[in-house]
Amino acid sequence: MSMVTRGVVFDLDDTLYLEVSYVKSGFRAVARKIGEAVETVSADKIYSFLWENFEAGRRGDNFDQLLTRYLDVARVFSITDLINCYRDHYPDISLLPEATEVMKFFRKKGVKMGILSDGIRKSQELKIDALGLRNLVDSIVLTDVWGKGWWKPNPRGFIAIADQLRSFHEELCYIGDNPEKDFRAANSLGWLTIRLRMPGQLRESLEPKDEMDAPRITIRSLKDLLSILT
Predict the structure, then answer these.
(1) pTM above the 0.90 mark?
(2) Helix (H), strand (E) at residue 116
(3) Are 213 and 177 in the same domain?
(4) Which DSSP letter does residue 207 get?
(5) Of 153, 159, 193, 220, which sits most exposed with the smallest number of CB within 10 A?
(6) What pLDDT does residue 1 have?
(7) Do 115 and 192 belong together in one domain?
(8) Name one GO biological process term (predicted).
(9) Structural domain of residue 77, as residue ranges?
(10) What are 161-194's pLDDT values in tens digits?
(11) Measured between alpha carbons, how far is 32 from 221 in angstroms, rounded to an integer?
């Protein structure tokens, strides 16, 4: 299958890099901060606790569990302190190996590129800087600039980036990973939607709830885009 497109827009987390690497980086930042301030517990021990809980499937209350388990830490840090440390740290993350190759190929072909991502604005900006993406794409839209109510599946981000790329919706393609929110708005606007589904993603096992949440195409590697879109 080969399709012609004027613009390719990427999701960020678990699309251009593996999100689990950000989780690990954030846990390390929190562990270092605690290890430097609390003499009775080491950074390694804190990191192991956080990571083991995450691997066991805990989501959203990892720091609550940490402060319940380590009272000496709770005497020094609040939940807000730990969340801010996690969100505000400069992450140790890397692009998927094929991402750079694919983006350079599209650049050489004159295909416009953008990033459309949800998430806390400061955290997403730090990820983009750490990954060196600002010089690789033509436009970046972070929906959190308007508030969480405008995150996907709200169509505002898609409309905004189409305008910035000066392209019609039917000329654009969106590559994401999450069928719970990534494809509904894009499908309704007439975009070509592609899901990257590969081992290591946090939402690899998720299935779309209905046809509007389903991507038109599923790929196993970003390199598959080269045969689909050129």
Answers:
(1) yes
(2) strand 112-117
(3) yes
(4) -
(5) 220
(6) 43
(7) yes
(8) small molecule metabolic process
(9) 21-88
(10) 999 999 999 999 999 999 999 999 999 999 999 9
(11) 34
